[in-house]
Amino acid sequence: MYTASIPVFTRLLTQLDVLLDKAMAFADERKIDPNALLLARLSPDMFTLIRQVQIATDMIKGTCGRLAAVELPKFEDTEASFADLKARIAKTRDFLGTLTEAQFEGAETRQISLKVGPPTNQQTLEFVGQDYLMAWGTPNVYFHYSMVYALLRHNGVMVGKRDYLG
Known about the structure:
This protein is mostly helical. The protein has a single domain (2-165), classed as dinb family like domain (Four Helix Bundle (Hemerythrin (Met), subunit A), Up-down Bundle). It has helices at 2-29, 35-38, 49-68, 82-98, 129-154, 161-165; strands at 111-116, 123-128. It is globular, with a radius of gyration of 16 Å.
């Protein structure tokens, strides 16, 4: 469970950092207001690039922290710039660096209870660790990571498959 999560998500955080570096360079070279990218959406009812990064990092720290049975750090969701988002990525990477293989022993059968949805209509989801990682955590991380890639690509940032995969 450690091997299926920590190295995978650490690499993804590194690539997310690369994507944001390319976005910053693109905005700078073209004299584009960074908010044009940071607040971009693929559709009016979808989250902005900022929120996609926030959710991707929350899903990474939440998935790994729950599997390791440790208290999750709280991030305030106040990022408003590329530098702020890069700092959030670094905090997430630092948190992953505190987790050890020993903390993941038995994680595949660990019971995980998760509240999802708005406070007025929350649902509780129950998982066994392996199902949580494979059917909830990993797909959610990649969904939001892919949205960051898609938003940048859609807005003209020259990113490709190698930037996505690393």
